[in-house]
Amino acid sequence: MPSPPAGLDIVSLTGASGSQLDFWIDAVNKNAGKKILTKTGKVDIRRDRLAGYYGLDLSVIPAAPTIGPIPHDVDINKRQWAHLRLLGAEWAEKDSANIPFRLVKDEITESVNAPHCNYIGFAHSHSCPYIIKSAIQETLANAGGVSARTLSDNEQNPGNIDDETVQALIQSARDGDISAIVKLFKVQASISGKELFSPAAPNVLSSDSNSNPSTSSSTSLSITAQTPLSPSTLAVQSADSAPDSRILASGGMEIEALSRAEGLRDVIEQCENGAVAKIRELYGPQTGREANPMWANIKMTITRRERVALELKNEFRGDKEKFFAFFTVPDSGSKKRKVTEPTEKLRPLRRIVEAISRRNKDLTTEQQLEVYQNNGVFSAELWEMKWSGNNKWEIWRAIGMERY
Fold first, then answer.
1. Which of 252, 222, 220 is nearest to 239 (CA)?
2. Does 4 share its domain with 117?
3. Angle, nearest 10°, between helix axes 163-174 and 103-112?
4. Of the candidates 210, 146, 207, the residue with the CA atom closest to the CA atom of residue 176
5. Are strands 373-374 and 377-378 parallel, antiparallel or unpaired?
6. What Å distances lie between residue 115 and 111, 224, 335, CA to CA?
7. Fewer Cβ atoms within 10 Å of its own Cβ: the N or the C terminal residue of the chain?
8. Are residue 108 and residue 182 in the same domain, yes or no?
9. Half-sphere exposure (CA, 13 Å, Cβ side) for 195?
10. Do 322 and 269 share a structural domain?
11. CA–centroid distance for 81 within its chain
């Protein structure tokens, strides 16, 4: 009696469909070189023919294998794929709403929610994951703002801060928010047991015009380098940097005012009320005078505000209502809005400024199209005929290239 082929046994034969039975019957006839079994009749009849040919007793169905727990590595693999599918869905949702998707945010959230993880208690328990410290340290190393050394003793304790607040501070600091940078220094101080990270400062001239540069005091404004300093060291340095304290005090109120901007409307207001121009006058390079050492830390904050103010003036002709309406993020409608949430959501300043170069590049590419050419040369008249009454931002949106 012939042996059944691989895959044909009592279990598979019992549950086989008609097409599968016909396939096995064809294989029997082909191997025998003649017609031994026919494909006529109902499914049960064809099944019995195959069972009789191979000597299989369909009345005796083997017991199903014992079902045990999923192997540990298989279970891990299944859960990893499930998590990736959830991340993919979240990514798609945020992308449709024009919201950045960052994996590190979830990592920080999970780490902060770990048992006994508390920012203020870190110095005693040492249970707070390293990822929180590294995320804050990386943000402070790449953002401009005031150094931790400028914080007084009573400012170094930020109080109880939850994970969502830290995440918001990190994002705001990366967007150039000076007040968020200062608060992150406070958080860093508390989770590091008061060992503040502060840079080796460059030299600046003292207020005395006759002083020698080699004896000038050090400033505490740069955060590009990171050296742990103890509270006692900070106290000594604060006494040695009195001239720098006076420099900070002379413009501290103006800088603090800039840091209070909560959105695009506040930024435009700061440009219109002269706050931005005053900071540039105090710290920026002027005729016959070099820039203040602090300028390197606040330059980006000032220039971003100035650039977006120029867009309002030049492209929107000063029409603030039209300007804010254009940069309002459309509601995705994916989630129900809480009653207490504000109805207006404007695009971040940084993303608008960064989009200017992309917009200009895309418009230049658009102008190379044949529809705007006259004898192979770009025609401003043809461009005007097509886009009359539209500014660069509106054209960029109309050609479908707008992105932030």
1. 220
2. no
3. 150
4. 146
5. antiparallel
6. 9, 33, 30
7. N
8. yes
9. 9
10. yes
11. 22
* Residue 337 pLDDT: 57
- Ranges of the chain with pLDDT below 50: 105-129, 144-156, 194-250
Q: Residue 351 domain-assigned?
A: yes
Amino acid at the residue 129? P
- The pLDDT assigned to 210 comes to 41
> Measured between alpha carbons, how far is 139 from 172 in angstroms, rounded to an integer?
10
Clarify whether residues 161 and 244 are in a common domain.
yes
Angle formed at CA 194 by CA 190 and CA 200, multiple of 5 degrees: 120
Residue with tokens 């990190």: 170
Q: What gap in Å lies between CA 13 and CA 20, rounded to an integer?
A: 9
What pLDDT is recorded for position 236?
38
Query: What predicted TM-score, i.e. pTM, was given to this entire model?
Result: 0.41
pLDDT value for 318: 96
- Any domain includes 4: yes
Q: What is the CA radius of gyration of the chain?
A: 35
Contact 250, 277 (CB under 8 A): no
Q: What is the DSSP letter of 218?
A: B
pLDDT at site 68: 63
Give the pair of three-digit tokens for residue 267.
């930024």
